[in-house]
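User: Structure please.
Assistant: Input sequence and predicted structure:
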Amino acid sequence: MSLLEMYYTINEVATLLRFSDRWVRDRINDGSFGDGVRDINGDLRIPASGVNAFLSLHPRQYDLGIKARNLGELRRKLAKIGA
């Protein structure tokens, strides 16, 4: 039996971790999500296992406690604080 790996887009990870797309791209470039990041037709995909490993090494650093009703509001609030 083989396991199926879930992959996230940069935007999905940014939303989940409450950071900007730029921050996620910087973490991809520095290897924070491991070497399982895939380029699918020019769109980077981050494995769920890489996100989980990052979270286990950086507990609570990713959660800024920002409350937002939708993605647009979250992006505006993140832009204000420069995340």
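The radius of gyration is 13 Å.
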